[in-house]
Amino acid sequence: MQFQVLDKEGRAVPDAVVVLYPASPGAPPVASKVTIGQQRMRFLPPVTVVAPGSTLHFTNLDRWDHHIRGTTAALGFADPRAGADFELRLAGAEAGASGGEAEVTVDKPGPILLGCHLHSSMRGHVFVSDSAWTVKTDDDGIARFGAVPEGAVQLRVWHPEQLVELPRRNLQVGAAPVLDSVQLSVVPRRKRS
User: Fold this and answer.
1) Adjacency order of strands within the sheet including 2-6
2) What dihedral angle (degrees, nearest 10) is formed by the CA atoms of 39, 42, 45, 51?
3) Burial grade of 6 (CB within 10 A; 0-12, 13-18, 19 or more)
4) 114 in Cβ contact with 102 (< 8 Å)
5) pTM for this model (two decimals)
6) Which residues make beta-bridge pairs with 103?
7) Would you say residue 77 has pLDDT above 70?
């Protein structure tokens, strides 16, 4: 299965999260440990996808201190009472070494907004998914899935700048490949390089 996420004007959207919920979901997603860096006043990667129970390892690569504030960003994908909120402070890097490091474990499904109290322009997101069929789109806005179980599947798409949740789409998976597109109702800001 392959889906392309497009913006309101028909351009490809990277860093959108495409989630499939097969009628026969199989094994749950596996928790992992991922690193999210803070570099050049940005969270890298800007969107991270993990399973519940995963550990987020934050590391500051800038010379100045950063603060990390994580808050639940509900929009239908999470219970706003899920309590994903956390706050951390990381010291700046010194010559030849990275700066402060900290870890947080995330347990509840849904999007988490990352911000920095010290640098208000810094934004990042973590998407905690309870489906093993969750993929972030590449630079061409493409999400590719292999070996999706045959039968009924629900499709959901999330993007940090989509303020209104897109309706779920019901699909039927068979032997033939599925090639489809989903259009957001916004034009996301382009990332600075």
Assistant:
1) 142-144, 2-6, 179-183
2) 110
3) middle
4) no
5) 0.89
6) 57
7) no
